[in-house]
Amino acid sequence: MFPGKRIPAIRRLAGAIALGLGLAGSLLTPAAAHAEGQVRIAEQFGIVYLLLNVVRDQQLIEKHGKEQGLDIKVDWTQLSGGAAVNDALLAGTIDIAGAGIGPLLTVWDRTHGRQNVKGVASLGNFPYYLLSNNPKVKTIADFGDKDRIAVPAVGVSIQSRFLQYAAAKQWGDKYYNRLDKYTVALPHPEATSALTSGSTELTGHFSNPPFQNQALESPNVHVVLDTYELLGPNSPTVLYATEKFRKENPKTYRAFVDALAEAADFAQKDKGAAAETYIRVTGAKIGKDALLKIIDNDKFEFSVTPKNTYPLAEFLHRVGALKNKPASWQDYFFPDPRLAEGS
User: Fold this and answer.
1) Assessment of whether the complete model's pTM goes beyond 0.70
2) Of 36, 140, 280, 335, which has the highest C-beta tally within 10 A?
């Protein structure tokens, strides 16, 4: 994918992508407040955003808005990496952000007492894999100066935070960011191609489904770290918003959460139909049977209730990545009866 260019090309590509995202963000609706009845949603790449695909495909926000006597205009945009998503949210160009729990905790901490960004809901529970095409890399301790690990956003993405959590377990909290210097920002599709081609210095990719599963079809790619083994079943990807949006748009906010809950029920009960929706909406080049092999198991749970997020929050405060310590997961999620069993 990057013949003869090696890792500088990866960095240039990542920079170009970031620049493109910034330009795209500047073309979105200005930061001025808008009336109830409009919501702008940012999603990223992968099956972990399937609930949003269902919401979009079945026009569930519009449906639940009409039940409240409201015609809701929904705008969708796709970004890559929690940093870009957080920037867009704080700039006022999106209303609902889709990213990892790591980026949520970062922006919750930075806006504490001001914009008060908090979680709206989870998108489900899924294992993420750290992959490598370097046969010498069996554990995270084997990564060295010649290795590069792709993540959606360096330092703040959920993949970066998982890597830091693993490093702290390996070497102690003082060295939690020991592997950050090996990471580069690259969207999952490009990182998957680079890893499987083996033509660059990219030897690692902290991925998500279905990209991690597609990469593992290559005989040269193997799993170095499974986040379920690291933390147990957890909700890696969530949706969040500002307190201002929630307060000023109560009907729109309610319609969104109702829509998401309906999508979660649909996807969990009929994973076959959910797989068809994902392929149809995203145009992903993966067959239904192959996709079902990924999602139709006990490790995949589509649910709006966040699960096992607090250990990461506690860790990030302990190592100084968060200034404010949440007393519980409820500090960084808006109250909602559908999230009552969260953690």
Assistant:
1) yes
2) 140
